[in-house]
Amino acid sequence: MKPVVVILGPTAVGKSDLGIQLAMKLHGQIINADAIQVYRGLNIGSGKVSQHEQQMVKHHLLDILDPNQRFDIATFQNMARSCIDAILQDGDCPIVVGGSGLYIKALLYDYQFMDQTPLDPMVLTTMESMDNQALHAWLNQVDPESASKFHPNNRVRIMRALQIALSSGSTKTDLEAKQSHQLLYDAKIIHLDTDRDRLKHRISKRVDQMIQHGLLDEIQTLLDHGYTFDDPGLRGIGYKEFKPWFDHRSNCQDCIDTVKIHSYQFAKRQRTFFRHQFDKLMEVDPFIDNMDQVIREIESWWLQQAAAHC
Hints:
Blueprint: E1 2-8, H1 15-26, E2 28-32, H2 51-56, E3 59-60, H3 73-89, E4 93-98, H4 101-108, H5 121-129, H6 132-142, H7 144-149, H8 155-168, H9 172-177, E5 185-192, H10 196-212, H11 215-224, H12 243-246, H13 252-277, E6 281-284, H14 291-309
């Protein structure tokens, strides 16, 4: 199997920093696995690496779409697998870095996407016109197990599950149960995590720094270019929470506090997902463990795999 290094973990834990360190040590190239960082112009709120860092290490799947364009798991799977092949062909180490768990799972595992009959446009129009509670109630009727996993406000996931059920004749739950859950790559998966209080403090500090670095100006620029909070890019955490501020319905501090709350909640979901959905994780606390030793261990693994792959 083709070797690949994967760095995953909750938001604000330091994935990008380790990815760059490893890329420089292993002569690697980084594949972005963050669903918001694929969008151009969404830099500060997404925690995207700087232009200087992008010059230090080659990055893939950053800034490939405009904020109003859709990006899905199947597209990511196809593009990221092509990136891995190209990086290995260059003789370099592919390093997947990100916190979008479903994207990474679809990339690494034998995750198949089902054929679907296109939905009647009238059905899609009806779905778009429904509020979140009504959509969740509809999903609860056709796929109660999926509905139980999604918060009623997780509109994108709910609509996706509904479309699967209505177009394929099978529920998302049934289709996922048929997946073999077999790794397709010889993957060294590093799970970065730390204790809850430290992570919460880092998230809070990170959000404050985003504001100091001009997040509100970044959002205003996007709005000035004609993008809206209904566009896929601006639905991400760190952006959508500021809609009330720009609509003059809330004060800025309330929006900042909401970003922090949503980020805490997202980090909690990430931690649960990673520990239950991935095998043979290398658990690393970047604030306690000897990171030089961690990097040496990964380097030793890569050299062995690279030699075998050649």
